[in-house]
Amino acid sequence: MADDETGVDLHFAGRRIRAQTADTFLQKLKGLRFADSGRMFFRFDSPTRTTVDTIFVRDVQYLYFFDGDRTLVEQAELTPNRFYRPSHSYRYLLETFEDLGVETGERLEIVDE
């Protein structure tokens, strides 16, 4: 993670995860495009069903959608150059290049808050 990028520590699936944060419109738009590794954590002001895409993403991406209580409500594995619209509303999204091997219903803790 570059020095000018903000990050957050998350506790999820029995482990501590460090992720970049996407808080601004441009950070959310960029996401993990053009990256080969990393994790990105998105926060939304209200529940959304915003479509996620993997345009300009080079590898399989794993998406973890959390509701306002930070409960995992949906997850998806998305190959490059695809679009995905979740069937559940979400307030938080974790994008990563690794399968975390988790179950729907697991809770996320934001350690830095």
Name the descriptors.
113 residues; Jelly Rolls; 7-stranded mixed β-sheet; DUF192 domain-containing protein; Saro_0823-like_sf
Short description:
5% of the residues lie in helices and 44% in strands.
Describe the largest sheet: 7 strands, mixed
Residue ranges: pLDDT <50 for 5 or more in a row?
none
Give the total of domains.
1
CATH class: Mainly Beta
| Number of distinct beta strands | 9
* Strand percent estimate: 35-45%
- CATH homologous superfamily, by name? Protein of unknown function DUF192
Question: Would you tell me the overall average pLDDT?
Answer: 87
Across the major sheet, the strand order is 6-5-8-3-2-1-9
Sketch the topology as an H/E string, one letter per element.
Answer: EEHEEEEEEE
Question: What portion of residues is helical?
Answer: under 10%
Protein model, in words:
This protein is mainly beta and 113 residues long. The protein has a single domain, classed as Jelly Rolls (Sandwich), CATH 2.60.120. Helix content is 5%, strand content 44%. The protein contains 1 helix and 9 strands; from the N terminus they run ββαβββββββ. The strands form 2 sheets. The protein has a 7-stranded mixed β-sheet. Strands 4-7 form a two-stranded antiparallel sheet. Strand 2 (15-22), helix 1 and strand 3 (39-48) form a beta-alpha-beta unit. The protein is globular, with a radius of gyration of 13 Å. The model has no long low-confidence stretch (mean pLDDT 87). InterPro entries: Saro_0823-like_sf.
